[in-house]
Amino acid sequence: NAGVTQTPKFQVLKTGQSMTLQCAQDMNHNSMYWYRQDPGMGLRLIYYSASEGTTDKGEVPNGYNVSRLNKREFSLRLESAAPSQTSVYFCASSDADRVGDGYTFGSGTRLTVV
Amino acid sequence: AQTVTQSQPEMSVQEAETVTLSCTYDTSENNYYLFWYKQPPSRQMILVIRQEAYKQQNATENRFSVNFQKAAKSFSLKISDSQLGDTAMYFCAPPIGSQGNLIFGKGTKLSVKP
Questions:
Q1: Distance between CA B68 and CA B46 in Å, rounded?
Q2: Opening angle at CA A21, ends A107 and A63, nearest 5
Q3: I need a labelling partner for A71 at 20 to 30 A (CA). Which of A5, A12, A55, B19 fits?
């Protein structure tokens, strides 16, 4: 069972470069999320998608864009990376009809912007 | 604003002893699920235990149990017979808003000493 797959696992970018973080889930979940984790800050929601074709801003959306390509895939794009975007990024998914199951997380992407 | 507070940034416990991690939160929802997640050094987010707010009985999963006080909006995690493998960051995650997206506390870093 693959669950939630994130790529890449590690990335180093120069300031101003762009990149897309990929996320795919194989559990037929309708909801997907992108979080960032910074030391002492917990996980903060960047964007989420309640269903295919919809996306909404979370707590810290500035500097990011997302695409819900289909039910399986939810990508996060940094158009012009900044050092403040150095973080660990997690993708997660959930079934809105089974709220008690909580979220399933990917293994994270450690992004460093120099 | 809906918030979650984990007041213990770091805790330490001897192997085989019991430790309790605290969490308080604020939500305007009436029926919801709360979760504790564990993040070991591998970085993977692992669901430890869930509690349905509608149920008065505290949830238990093997050595893990919660003390859920709905009126006080308190949701603490008790780990009994602590093991070295319990060493990890622990995050409390109640829901926020009508969408039910999870909000994560800043975490408690638990170290289990041999």
A1: 20
A2: 120
A3: A12
pLDDT confidence tier of residue A75, bands split at 50, 70 and 90:
very high
- Tell me if A42 and B52 make a contact (CB, 8 A cut-off): no
Q: How far is A105 from chain B (nearest CA, A)?
A: 6
| Distance of alpha carbon A105 from alpha carbon A52, whole angstroms | 18
Distance separating the N- and C-terminal Cα atoms of chain B: 41
Q: Is the bond preceding residue A8 a cis peptide, omega within 30 degrees?
A: yes
Please, which pLDDT band fits residue B1 given cuts at 50, 70 and 90? Answer: low
Residue B44, chain A, CB below 8 Å: the answer is yes
Residue B44 to residue A105, Cβ atoms within 8 A = yes
Give which of B104, B108, B109 to mutate to test A binding, by max A Cβ within 10 Å: B104
pLDDT value for B34: 93
Q: Residue B2: pLDDT band by 50, 70, 90 thresholds? A: low
- Is residue B3 over pLDDT 70? yes
pLDDT score at B96: 80
Q: Where are the beta strands (DSSP E) in chain B?
A: 4-5, 10-14, 19-21, 24-25, 33-39, 46-52, 60-61, 64-69, 74-79, 88-93, 95-96, 101-102, 108-113
